[in-house]
Amino acid sequence: MKKFMSLSLAFVLVVAMGAMAFAAELPLQGDLNAKVPVTVEIGPYAKVWLQQRVDFGTLVGKVGLYTANGLDGTPEEFYHRAATMFGEPDLANDFDETNDNSTGHGAFWVESNTDVTVGIGFDPSGWLASPTLFAVARLGDPTTARAWASANFSLSTDTQTSFAHLYSEQGNEPVYYGIDGAIWIQYISQQLANEYNGTITITLSK
After folding, report:
1. Contacts of residue 206, Cβ cutoff 8 Å, sequence gap at least 6
2. Sheet holding 116-123, edge to edge
3. Is the N end or the C end of the chain the one with fewer CB atoms within 10 Å?
4. Residue 206 bridge partners (DSSP)
């Protein structure tokens, strides 16, 4: 019985010493140190804000292709891409350069501390009846359409409507994205002469 009790006491002492391993104890003749762990966890965080709206300006209303662009500096790059997306590459020949709004592209900024998905959608309530396209591109890479949105036109099932915004430690600065727009007026009476408004929604998700 004594032997069993001695073994049990030894076990208790070992456990107690393990629990006190954090403590420092010495006859004090100088500095005595104890290390205290410090921890923090940063949760995922992101911000998106408007730089400028998409502005097509005043269109003459005749049949043709019109753009609101400018991220790439010239209308040519985007109106060819838009015509191809509409399934009418030759439509680029009907581009009315006199009605081009080469500073009309929209823009927004995204900043995040993690990788996020950026989605684009368009609410056509109050919009005109002509097929319309919007494409997002990143400043510095204007010819790559990262995502599309449309009104009165069905995008193909493999068309991207969102893209990955990857976190970068280089500079830790917001990223500028432009939104180019294209309207295809198919016939003059397609819509009443009036002012029209719609809303593009940018959605960030993890």
Report:
1. 44, 46, 114, 116, 117
2. 162-165, 116-123, 199-205
3. N
4. none
The model's pLDDT over 10-34, given as tens digits with 9 standing for 90+, comes to 444 444 444 445 566 767 778 888 8
Q: How far is CA 48 from the centre of its chain?
A: 8
β-pair partners for 136: 147, 179
Encode pLDDT of 53-109 as tens digits: 999 988 888 899 999 988 766 666 788 999 999 999 999 888 866 666 667 899 999
Residue type, 47: K
Return d(Cα 105, Cα 181) in angstroms, integer.
Answer: 7
Report the alpha-carbon distance of residue 186 to residue 197 in Å, rounded: 19
The Cα–Cα gap between 146 and 178 comes to: 10
Question: Residue 83 carries which side chain, given as an amino acid letter?
Answer: A
